Amino acid sequence: MEAANLMKSQLFVGLVLILSVANASAQLNDDEIKSRVRFYADKLGIELHGPGIATESSVQSFRRVYFGQLSCSIRKTDGTLVVLWVGQQVEQADLGAEDFGDDEAAWSLAEGILRTLELDEGRFRGKIIWEDAKGPVGVNECPYVSCSFVPKPYGYKVAGGNSVEIAFRRRDGALFRVSSGTPFTYERPNIQITEEQAKAVAIREYGGEPGDWHVSEPFYTTGVNPYVSDEIRRMAENRVMRLCLSVGSPFGKVTVDTVKGTLVYKAAPPLAIPTKPKLPKPAVAAQTTPDVAVTPTPSRLPLILGSIAGILAFGYFYTWLRKRQ
Q1: Which residues contact 169 (CB under 8 A, 6 or more apart)?
Q2: Of 212, 270, 306, 312, which is the most buried if we count CB atoms within 10 A?
Q3: Which one has a higher pLDDT value, 315 or 90?
Q4: In the 8-state DSSP scheme, what is residue 317?
Q5: Please, which pLDDT band fits residue 311 given cuts at 50, 70 and 90?
Q6: Are 93 and 164 in contact (CB under 8 A)?
Q7: What are the phi and psi torsion angles at 32 (to 5°)?
Q8: What does the DSSP assignment read for 83-124?
Q9: What b/e readout covers 286-315, taking b as 16+ CB neighbours within 10 angstroms?
Q10: Shortest CA distance to 263 belongs to which of 217, 219, 232, 220?
Q11: What is the pTM (predicted TM-score) of this model?
Q12: Contact 205, 268 (CB under 8 A)
């Protein structure tokens, strides 16, 4: 029995080692990753200097490379771009400068970058945001405009994966940042629940009545929260998104999967901090102690009059006594 268990353990360890070696061999080395950075920089017309420095990223599947002020994160498995940051900091010329153009000019510039990097297929205009300077000169990020492009699988909106954001410095349109979301695939729509059933999930979590809740248009998303079903968790691990419904009200917000009706995401609104009410100060004359007998304070006038009478009587007696002598 012990020999059989030992053999099983050895086989398991051997399998783990084989899988580890296979996984490592499937990842790009630093030279290959630097080559990918040079590829993207060349397409964007960015001149790189020096050999580049490769470092670990906060995400294990990424590798970060620095070429001077340029920072680029690459996926180690396939060499695709995660984020390229040119390092534009706040300069004196940024303060009070006019923008290089309007929304349409920014979209046009961003779409040119999108085509250059061959990321335009299946992506459409999303949001445009104009950001002001976030710090003093020489610190933090310069004022920039950000354009995001999102996919619309089967005509539905997407939250997260496969989106691309391109940002430019506001004063002259110089490239500031390019970031690309994690690649996902999308499950074919298969809506099996009604809006009323989705509201029931929300009410179960936060209460209220059906009329308190409103349901948004279906959208694709994924869930990695501890309360999601095993099926949704496995889909997230395999980078597959499912069509969901968002249900919101003043009580909170939930996201419900449209196939099984399970919870994908929930968020309660921030709680208001209660304040202690200020009570008016009662009038002094009105202060009494309830249910306690109050004994009135006796007047001192009789005592004073009695003392005076005693003094006068003593003076009269003393005068009479002197006359007798």
Answers
A1: 88, 94, 100, 142, 143, 144, 175, 176
A2: 212
A3: 90
A4: H
A5: low
A6: no
A7: -65, -40
A8: EEE---B--GGGTTPPPS--HHHHHHHHHHHHHHTT--TTEE
A9: eeeeeeeeeeeeeeeeeeeeeeeeeeeeee
A10: 232
A11: 0.66
A12: no
